Amino acid sequence: MKNLKEKVLSTDLIFGGRFLKIWRDEVELPNGFKSFREYIKHPGAAMVIPETKDGKFIMIHQYRHSVGQVFLEFPAGKKDKGETTEQTAARELQEEVGFKPGYLQLLTHIHPVIGYSNEQIDLYYAKDLEAAPAMKDPDEVLEIFEFTLDEILEKLWNHQITDVKTQIGIFWLQKLKGR
Amino acid sequence: MKNLKEKVLSTDLIFGGRFLKIWRDEVELPNGFKSFREYIKHPGAAMVIPETKDGKFIMIHQYRHSVGQVFLEFPAGKKDKGETTEQTAARELQEEVGFKPGYLQLLTHIHPVIGYSNEQIDLYYAKDLEAAPAMKDPDEVLEIFEFTLDEILEKLWNHQITDVKTQIGIFWLQKLKGR
Question: In the list A27, B6, B20, B121, which could disulfide-bond B27, CB 3.0-4.6 Å?
Fold first, then answer.
């Protein structure tokens, strides 16, 4: 593999918002060219695909203000301090849809925003769900659904599931189920 | 569908970097709760899966400073002002790997960062490639490869393709090829 790595000449926190923090690094490329890279430092996140006892999958509708539309998603959220993504997946499953997982399996990890964020999302599959009190954040309003894998795949190929973590989760679920 | 839409109470540009611009909106949720949403406004982007005359697919290695690692990707980039994403796809194909597409087909569109950006990426498939001078940006250093679909799928299932636009493009390519 060619050497593609960039050397960091300086790094600065240039914006600290309530939620978003932006760094700007000056870098030197392997070709000697100097440039600036601006990016968000993100704590990492987890998503979970919960399977019910009758073989359906729990999804949520959530309004996403950045895009201005409602998305069909699997439960997900950012890591809290000190958490593993397995703990995040279990916590978000309980907070958003009210279940504890009896079984939790890591499917893969993804990088959604390589142009301007270090965010990594770990994708989990969960089954053997036990009811547990949901504890939604007050700024999260959700609608909960259960669908079969066929119903989900139909929505995906009809371009109705454009959230990347959810779409990739479905492909890995399909593989897991030998479909 | 439940009403999940949030009402915008105020909107402010709170950070204008060289590349990233952040808005903060105060919103009122359907449950009456007020909150703030911080997000990046993005011009939109296009990715293109180029098929060579002998049925291989062109991919690139690119170092992504935000994550600090080299990614295997399909050619992609942000829309320039006034461009359609079809024009962006054709331009990036020429700039990054040195081909003009004789045929370009939209596969789907995705939203990679619904938590904090309005970014949309349109995914294209290209064939009937004609050589054209590559004109890389001076701050892009790339390594170019050609792989069969089987080679690409092996890398995907081995967790070696974690860039979301690339991974989703592969699944849609697999569908297009009836695999």
Answer: B6
